[in-house]
Specification:
Largest sheet: 12 strands, mixed
Structural class: alpha+beta
Strand content: 25-35%
Distance between the termini: 92 Å
Number of domains: 2
Shape: elongated
Order of helices and strands: HHEEEEEHHEHHEEEEEE
Radius of gyration: 28 Å
Number of helices: 6
Helix content: 25-40%
Length: 259
């Protein structure tokens, strides 16, 4: 065994330094990994502050893609909409309900629907369409139908194309907030905030917030099983323009959305 006291001071210092380095490496290697390493840091905040950061980010964004399902007034709607703010903003995308799918386009105040002939034929009273209904519907199939602003359907449907209305009405969680689990949405690391009884199941509503870059809300689980929505393509601009005139048909009577 080597007598350390007999070694030159330089060798003794080097030996002690090597031992200390080895011990330090061992300690660091055994330490728990920081879950917030390489993130935007919102995971360290209280759930109330995380929600505030997410709502602020959403409020400043000019556009977003919204996809998933919403349950309202007993009806389930499946959405895939791209939304934009501003006077010439609006939205474009698809909505499905009760086995029927239609496209929606709103540019400014002008709202258009586009669907196949079967969709339009089924709007007449909700029963079996007559031959005259089918004949009229055949002229509307795969054309854009402009919805009159005074029609009840305008208010009901235009909300799906209104980014500001949807962000204000959907994103805010109501109740006591808790911090839930970490996860991923669309490839982004997230932290979840929930309204619930402490088990983090999100029955009272949950919001997954991005831990990368701007803390945008990326997934919303609505309270009471009222739907799950993903929010992607934040601030990714897209073009909105009215259809060509030869692709627009006047429905000629009040538009309904079926029963």
């Amino acid at each position: 065994m080597t007598d350390v006291t007999a070694l030159p001071r330089t060798r003794t210092a080097a030996l002690v330094g090597a031992v200390c380095t080895a011990l330090a490496v061992g300690v660091v290697g055994c330490a728990e990994e920081d879950p917030d390493a390489g993130t935007n840091g919102v995971g360290k905040l209280s759930p109330q502050k995380i929600e505030h950061r997410a709502l602020t980010a959403a409020g400043r964004a000019g556009s977003v893609r919204l996809s998933g399902s919403v349950v309202t007034q007993g009806r389930t709607y499946k959405l895939d909409m791209r939304l934009k703010r501003g006077e010439q903003g609006g939205g474009i995308g698809q909505v499905s309900t009760k086995g029927k799918t239609f496209e929606m386009l709103r540019v400014g105040n002008d709202l258009y629907l586009k669907a196949d002939a079967d969709f339009w034929a089924s709007q007449e009273g909700g029963g079996q369409p007559s031959k005259s209904d089918e004949a009229a519907a055949s002229k509307l199939g795969d054309k854009y139908v402009k919805v009159p602003p005074g029609d009840p359907a305008y208010k009901q449907l235009s909300g799906f194309t209104d980014m500001e209305l949807l962000m204000d009405g959907l994103l805010e969680l109501r109740g006591g907030l808790e911090t839930g689990e970490r996860g991923t949405v669309a490839g982004y690391r997230t932290v979840r905030i929930t309204v619930g009884d402490g088990d983090g199941d999100g029955d009272g509503g949950a919001l997954d917030v991005s831990l990368k870059g701007t803390p945008y809300p990326l997934r919303l689980q609505r309270a009471g099983g009222a739907g799950v929505l993903e929010l992607t393509d934040w601030n990714r601009d897209f073009t909105l323009k009215a259809p060509n005139k030869d692709h627009i048909v006047d429905y000629g009577k009040q538009i309904t959305t079926g029963n």
